[in-house]
Amino acid sequence: MSKRSTVARLAAALVLLIGTSCLRAGGQQAGTPNGGVPCDHACLVKLVDQYLAAMVKHDAAGLALAANVKFTENTATLPIGDGLWVGASEAPTTFKIYAADPTSHQVAFYGLMKEFDKPILLALRLKVEDGKITEIEHVVVREVRDSALPNLTTPRPGLVETIPPAERSPREKMVRIANSYFEAIEHSDGSLAPFADDCARRENGLQTTTNKTPQAGPVGGPNGPMAIVSTRGCRANIDTHILSYITNIRPRRLIVVDEERGIVFGFPMFNHRGAVRTVKIVGVPGVDSMPMTGATSTLQAAEIFGIRNGQIHEIEAIGYMLPCGSKTGWE
């Protein structure tokens, strides 16, 4: 190989290295709301608080919004100022869960707030690029049961505390663990996900697993099969086939990963063809089946997984029904 050829190859390699470094530096700077300083965990959390305060004031003037910012609420694309911006009357106070992800320049939030002075649940996602908010996503549940409010006073500690480094998992593993939850549901096999013994799932504030006594769920009342099965843990609950009416969970959108707090935050779609009219319950004495009366539908959800030592300890979910096959608004 000639000396000139060798020099050319080294020069090309140097250009590639410099170019890669610039790309990496640009990626770090992409989430800088104040220009110049990368938006770290604390910065992203502060951005959520600023956004919520602006909504309650019904004034977005103080927010760093990109010119082409996209905003969806319950999958519908809206202009800033519509949707929850119209009626937001009180910001979240004591029930607040944050998931900040500097790597993807995103932050997600779940909390209880008020719209027209009525309690509602909000799941929120913000994305920041070049110091500007480029994406805003709301999932809003406007019908909150009174029986759920005690579970919506303060978050469970495992979802708000910074966890010791020894209990953390790499982000890729955390996403695989969260995804395994959906696999477990689709196959009615709780062994497919690494549930901790103390795992408990809550949906719109109602605890649907690991209850000491039967708790009324969205189907069947206080003495129905769903209430009885709610006394089982996360793994055993799925093993009963209680969730086998769910056709599939697509897309899953596990897109915000907070490694410091051990949280994966996603916005999945639970699809129900409506073909299952009776669920055959497995392994629960005195409970053989559960009638299904719902029609074909898609549930837009927001799901939070608390993961420590490679296991799922907490699940928080909210959701509302849409026509079957509805899109997320982010395709």
Quick overview:
The chain folds into two domains: 41-144, Nuclear Transport Factor 2, Chain: A; 162-322, Nuclear Transport Factor 2, Chain: A.
Strand content: 25-35%
Stretches where pLDDT falls below 50 for ≥5 residues? 1-31
How many domain units?
2
Which percent bin holds the helix content?
A: 10-25%
The third-level CATH topology of the largest domain is Nuclear Transport Factor 2, Chain: A
Determine the N-to-C terminus distance: 50 Å
- The shape, in one word, is globular
Cα Rg: 22 Å
CATH architecture of the largest domain: Roll
Biggest pleated-sheet summary? 8 strands, mixed
Mean pLDDT: 90
Alpha plus pi helix count: 6
Please give the number of β-strands. Answer: 17
Order of helices and strands: HHEEHEEEEEHEEHHEEEEEEEE
What structural category characterises the helix and strand content?
A: alpha+beta
CATH class type of the largest domain? Alpha Beta
Structural commentary:
The chain has 331 residues and is of the alpha+beta class. It has 2 domains: 41-144, Nuclear Transport Factor 2, Chain: A (Roll); 162-322, Nuclear Transport Factor 2, Chain: A (Roll). Helix content is 23%, strand content 33%. It has 6 helices and 17 strands. The chain has helices at residues 3-29, 41-57, 84-87, 171-187, 225-229, 234-239; strands spanning 65-73, 76-77, 88-90, 96-101, 106-115, 118-129, 132-141, 195-203, 206-207, 248-249, 254-258, 263-266, 269-272, 278-280, 289-291, 297-308, 311-322. Strand 11 (254-258) and strand 12 (263-266) form a beta hairpin. The chain is globular and about 60 Å long. The relative contact order is 0.13. Residues 1-31 have low confidence and may be disordered.
